[in-house]
Amino acid sequence: MVLSEFEKESGELIELARNYRDALLNLDRYSASEMIHTSLDEGVPIKDIYIKVFESSQHEVGRLWQNNIINVAQEHYCSASTQQIMSELYPLIFKSQKKGYKLLATCVAGEMHEIGLRMVADIFELEGWDSYYLGANTPLESILDTISNLDPDIVAISASIHFNIPAVKELVDKINSLPLRSRFKIMVGGRPFSISPDLWKKVGADASASNALEAVQLANELIS
Amino acid sequence: MNQEEFPPVSSEALKSFKEHSPHIIKNTVNISLERSDEVVQHGDHARELLSSGMEFTTRMLETAMLLGEVSILEDQLSWACNRLPHDGVALEHILIRLEIYRGQIREALPEEYVSEITHYIDWMIEWQKEWLKKSE
């Protein structure tokens, strides 16, 4: 049997992921939220909810739009609702015991797709990091200022649209000339880095990860 | 695809391409609009739609040429071939517009930079031809 991408990404949580996707496509955020909370109560790990339900459903919704099965408004509703439901989980995420490491997570200027990076920041938080999430479309100079003020251990930079990669390179070039550069590592992520395994080297970063779990594992290795 | 065959283009060629690209896009759109049977389905939005498409293509191309990354173009062409027919854009017309675009690059850019840039466009055109063959 050939598995769909959605099935592969959702694994054993495919039924939950399908129901979650369908609830959002039916504009029923309340049911979507309820099934997530019920699953958590039943013992499904929150990290699995993030990767195998939220992330896989977002990818599936993107494919549905690409194939003209849903429209842009439906896609935006799914993304916005998932972000709202993620926020409902913050009492669980932010109670993790802290390790004393700081993550600064940002999208480059011009990049409007933030949900993937937000998932990364949440998983870091869950794993005991202090996450500082700047969100979409952040101006270059303000990112540099924040790095200098925060003194992070990892700077995570995201770009989903390929033509924003020059902005990533420009930002990394500037970061690389900061006096405190040796004190932290730079990780990059987003679709362009997933399709081109060596692209992170070309933009001058220290590493790249294809999803939130891989990112936090790699970050722990980089700082050890 | 052999990635090594696509080194980043020189900064001089890229700068020249960026300087000339508004003119290249405008001419590509104008010529494409003259082929009225290929744009009639877009009605009053034809110019806007074609301009957005060529601007998007140009930004992708600039990114690929800056980094020497044809994979970026391949991913976007694949995406476009799946998506654009739903927006009323025929795959054959994408190929025709890329060929018009290449012609405009040849006309607009100083001769010493043309081959560096068209090396990437040639690859896009060949990729598009292959896709069309496969979808027949």
Low-confidence stretches of chain A: none
Main beta-sheet strand count, sense and barrel state of chain A: 5 strands, parallel
Total helices of chain A: the number is 12
| Silhouette of chain A | globular
Shape of chain B: globular
What does this structure look like?
The complex is a heterodimer of chains A (224) and B (136). Chain A is 58% helix and 11% strand. Chain A is α/β, with parallel strands linked by helices and 224 residues long. Chain A has two domains: 5-93, Methionine synthase domain (Methyltransferase, Methionine Synthase (B12-binding Domains), Chain A, domain 1, Orthogonal Bundle); 102-223, Cobalamin-binding domain (Rossmann fold), CATH 3.40.50.280. Chain A has a five-stranded parallel β-sheet with strand order 2-1-3-4-5, with helices on both faces. In chain A, helix 4 (46-66) runs antiparallel to helix 7 (115-126) and helix 7 crosses helix 12. The longest helix of chain A has 21 residues, at 46-66. Chain A starts with a helix and ends with a helix. By secondary structure, chain B is an all-alpha fold. Chain B has one domain: Phycocyanins (Globin-like). Chain B has five helices and no strands. Chain B has helices at 11-34, 46-67, 70-83, 91-108, 111-135. In chain B, helix 1 (11-34) packs antiparallel against helix 2 and helix 2 (46-67) runs antiparallel to helix 3 (70-83). The longest helix of chain B is centred in the last third of the chain and has 25 residues, at 111-135.
